[in-house]
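Working notes for the structural subgroup meeting. M.R. asked for a predicted model of this chain before we commit to crystallization trials. I am recording the input and output together here so anyone reviewing the notebook later can reproduce the run.

Input as submitted:
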Amino acid sequence: GQEKLNCNPRKENGSHVVLCELGNPMKAGARITVDMELSMSGLEDMGDAITFQLQLRSKNSPSPANASVTVTVPVEVQAVMELRGNSLPATTVLPASWHRVEGSQRLEDHGINVEHVYQLHNKGPSTVSGVTLHLAVPNQLGGRTLLYLWEVDTEGGMNCTNPPGLNAKQV
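Returned structure, recorded in token form:
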């Protein structure tokens, strides 16, 4: 049958330690299996493994046979990232013979305004860091301007590197 162990967490030499009383007395030939479930947080920057030090101590054994073993448990941070994108307006019909007005400072003289909105969502369960989103925008077609890159704006604490040629005509 299974019995509950009496385990007590405490701090020892700056480390969190869990002490479990395995038997008093523990009879010769006895076998004990211990399953321990731990809840942890803040593992995002811990690397790919956590190492536990397990040690058996006996109060009445004068020999240095207090067994010690190191157990390494792999850690895998999981996060579901989702990227969504919209164009406003969703559909744009360009006139076949439209020509932009050279030297104009008005945006509408450089084409129809189309706004692309991208949303990056971390659905968890873990925090992620060092995320990079690379957007390739087709701004030229056949040597002619297809999309005039006018402005890049971000929300939510992101840093963005402006692409070369952003608002080159200072519209």
